[in-house]
Amino acid sequence: MDGFWLKKEKPSLAALLRRIREVCLTEGLSPPHRSTVQRRVSELIPMSAARKRGEREIEAASTPSPGQFNAAKPNALWQIDHTIVDVIVVDEQFRKPIGRPVLTIAIDVCTRMVAGFHLSLEAPSSTSVGLCLLHAVYDKTAWLDEREIDIPWPVAGLPEVLHCDNGADFRSRALSDACKEYGMRLQFRPPATPRFGGHIERLIGTMMGAVHLLPGTTFSNVKIRGGYDSEGRARLTLRELEKWIARPERPPARSPNPLPSSSWTSPTSRISRQSMNQTEFLGGTLKPIPESIRPHGLRRGVQWRPSMQWSS
After folding, report:
1. Does 143 have pLDDT greater than 70?
2. Distance between CA atoms of 12 and 55, rounded to whole angstroms?
3. Theoretical Cys-Cys bridge with 216: which of 36, 150, 234, 281, CB 3.0 to 4.6 Å?
4. Are 271 and 111 in contact (CB under 8 A)?
5. Each residue of 145-176: pLDDT tens digit?
6. Which of helix, strand or coil describes residue 171?
7. Domains annotated on the chain, with CATH
């Protein structure tokens, strides 16, 4: 049982029955009944068996998650992550399908408000992380005015802790240097444990559920999509989808704070808002240094240091 069933290749029950029959016949024994084998499988400790078989969903469901992961004040803790949006967008000129965009988004854990986001047709990278943080850190009044969005979005400032997964784009030197420069602490969740990023995962899940009502949606999988022509029904440009993400009709993620917006304007709130402008945040820290030499040869291009060069 242990040597065959509990393998990363996740053999099926039918394969296990065949294997047991082969061994029994070789040893001159009578093979056990199917129900006996099924009972033995069900008696295994679920979490241990799932871990050995590499069944992460079952392992996660069997693992207790005691306590809560909260923040005491705004900007104390942000969570950030990427997702491929379940909708096809069109180009601005000919309104032809050009693909599914990638959303990089950050949430303030205390207020459950979106801190900022970046939408792009490029693959997730340290660049998209940097642009998301730029959007999150600064005042969004001009950004909203440019898109004719007449709603307040008070989230701004530097987070004390930036919580993310173990992707290469979050472990880049650029992000690490930037966090050190501006007093943000990077915190990584354990590998293969999405439950430790529950706030951002829940937000993304809620948003993707709403996206499935948009024209051109791909839904969450091919089976659900059925015969729906996602490309033929696509209508939104990247800018229009960006505006939809920030639209006021979409309900915010559930927040323990009954009035999350007021937390950003209250005179008693302790929000980390450093007085900076974007030029200082970006250009003031871009200092060219010589090209770095690595064991495999000369790295292409010029490396910039320290903080806000978000190159992959």
Report:
1. yes
2. 13
3. 234
4. no
5. 999 998 889 999 899 999 999 889 898 888 88
6. coil
7. 13-62 (no CATH), 77-257+272-305 (3.30.420.10)
